[in-house]
Amino acid sequence: MSDSTEPTESTGDEHERVLAERMATQRLTAPPMERAIDVVRLLTGVQCQDAPLARYSIALRTGLTDQEIRAELDSGAIVRTHVLRPTWHFVAVEDLRWMEALTSVRVEAKMAARHRQLELTPSATELAHALLVAELAGRRWMTRPELGARFAEAGLPSSGEQVGHLLMLAELRGLICSGPMRGTTHTYGLVDEVAPPSPALDRPDAVRELTRRFFVGHGPADENDLRRWATLTLTEIRAALTDLAADGSLIARTVGESTLWSGPDHPQPRPDAPRAFLLPVFDEQYLSYPSINFPRAAGHPRGDRPHSFAEAGGGVVVCDRHDVGWWKRKEVAGGRVVVTMGLATSLGTEEHDLIAESAARLGPFTGRAVDIVQA
To answer: 2-26+201-262 adopts what CATH topology?
Structure first.
């Protein structure tokens, strides 16, 4: 791998360049993509436990409205399921089977102690999953409350958390995934009735493919970014990187003490690219890079405290590649969206105007008027 690494450059300047390249790679500043499925394929997995804001992450990279993105989800081209880590992701339906096969065993193993606490015995889990297959056969889309009621009728574990984890295990094992939404509620269907059959990949090939796609869609990034993102081992990742460097699929450079990998071609920012973004709290641009991320602006409202990812409904305000504050979205009566923001005291009028323009983008996305409130 060392033969493919370029010389070290000035760390401060190169950090700034890394942040700029990532935003273009993920199409926040490069020309937008046409469809939601294009974004999901580029990023391979889009974290989406806060599904409405995950759709907004897609909108930031396409300009599509929420209704247009939901239509693609309902078409079955994109599914929502547990994969990569113990949380939901949007993935392209053609990627579902091989990604589950590659990552789910380790994810499930990490959750074994919690499942014992929830009394999800192997026999109870097997019976619950058999019931799911019977209930959902024939593309009978059902919601989580409906399936929980069936579990209760059958004498199976049926508390809210038990049902959630039984469905999660069924997703990890490739039995079920999302179906069309019913209003604002997600439904479930059988993978065998949703995802087309696909050739099985042996593990080394699957690791190489996931490694290549992560760095093409998220680079420049390092091996620990991928390890966190996909629960692969460093041994597997390093073997894949050696192969991908040798055939030119990925390139690397050194920044400080980190080796950062990316695809051989970088999209360029467009001349009219936005300078400010309201990134959802689980957006791939913010969450994927623990080691090199947006520096905090002076006078940040959280000081040195980290953002709390338990806060759904909002996220991180970024301006000129700096973390300048937080935001929260709330829909209110009268067809309006209220966006509350806490911003760094060091920002000037220009930065405030850029951030207000970014908040206004929620209007076309939601089809609602936007009111901005300073915390």
So the answer is: Arc Repressor Mutant, subunit A (1.10.10)
